[in-house]
Amino acid sequence: MANQHSTTEEQGKRHRHEGPQKHIVAFIFSIVLTVIAFALVAAGEINESFIYIMLLAMAVLQVFIQMSFWMHMKDRGHLFAIVAILFGVFVVLTIVVMAEFWTWW
Question: Model-level pTM?
Answer without folding.
Answer: 0.61
